[in-house]
Amino acid sequence: MEQIYTIPVNEAFEKTMEQQSYIDFVTGLYNRLCCERDLNDYIRDAEMSGSKGILLYLDLDDFKNINDGLGHQYGDMLLKTISQTLKGIEGIEKACYRVGGDEFIIIISPAIYSSFHSIVGKIMEIFSKPWYLKEGDYYCTMSMGIVCFPDDGRSFHELMKKADIAMYEAKRQGKNRATTYSRKLAVFPSRRLDM
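The chain above was modelled as a monomer; its predicted structure follows.
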C-alpha cells in the first residue's frame, strides 16, 4: 500500500497569506475583496439592529494629469499620502479601502453613523489643500458618491452601482464635491462599473 505523506500547515503563515490577500500593495489600505467582505458584514449588522451605515465612494479628479505630468512614481506617492491622511480621520482608521486605480471607499459603520457629516467634512477639508510632490504643491481634488445602507441597497454590488451614479453626478456638476444618491439620479445614465 502506498504511503501518503502530509505536510503540516503553518497556521501563522496561512494567516499572513490571508491578510496579504486583503491588502492593496501600493497604499497599504485594504482592497476591494476585503471591502466587499466587510461591507456585507456591516449590512447584516445594520439589518439586525435596525440601524444605518454609509458608504462613501471617492474618485480622484484628473488624477491622470498627475501621472502623465509627473510620472507614475509620483502618482503612487500621492496615492500613499492620500491613503495615510484618510486613515488619520477618527472613526474610519480601519474602514478605508482602495478599490481601483484612483478610487477609494470609506465605510461609516452603524456604530459611528452619527459622525457621518463630520467625517465627510474632514474628507472635503483634506482635499481642499494642495499636496506636496516633486518640490511643488499640486491640487488633486475628489468627487464623492454617498449611499446609505440598508436603505439604498443590501449588497455590495447594489450599493456600488448607486454610489457610482452619485459620484458621476458630482463630477457632472463640476467635480470637487459630494453627492448623495437619490432615486431621481437613477434616471441619468451612469458609467459602467468595471467590477
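Residues 139 and 161 are 28 Å apart (CA to CA).
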